[in-house]
UniProtKB/TrEMBL annotation:
The lineage of its organism: Eukaryota, Metazoa, Chordata, Craniata, Vertebrata. Transmembrane segments: none annotated. This is Phosducin. Residues 1-99 form the Phosducin domain. GO terms for biological process: regulation of G protein-coupled receptor signaling pathway. InterPro entries: Phosducin, Phosducin-like_reg, Phosducin_thioredoxin-like_dom, Thioredoxin-like_sf. Pfam families: Phosducin. One of its GO terms (cellular component) is photoreceptor outer segment. Belongs to the phosducin family.
Length: 99
């Protein structure tokens, strides 16, 4: 029984390792960004959302210059972008959206 338990534990460890490798490959597949991109127009905004892969997470910050909270969020997104390279982070000035 003790020998069987060790074999089971070894098989379980191998299975976990394979599952972790598979999950890592799935998460690593796809486009990588790693930066905060500036959208210049409402057309670019729509294109960024509509033409991106359905599996890609997109965060768009609609901001205006001189607003303290907007400046802080843009700075935070720039810092976070390299850590979350699988997420597309964008910003667009509210007056450029055409709304």
């Amino acid at each position: 029984l003790i020998n069987g338990d060790k074999e089971d534990e070894t098989c379980l460890r191998k299975y976990r390792k394979r599952c972790m490798q598979d999950m890592h490959q799935r998460l690593s597949f796809g486009p990588k960004y790693g930066y905060l991109s500036e959208l210049q127009s409402g057309e670019q905004f729509l294109e960024a959302i509509e033409k991106e892969r359905k599996t890609t997470t997109i965060i768009v910050h609609i901001y205006e210059d001189g607003v303290k909270g907007c400046d802080l969020l843009n700075s935070s997104l720039s810092c976070l972008a390299p850590e979350y390279c699988m997420v597309r982070l964008c910003k667009i000035k509210a007056s450029h959206t055409g709304a």
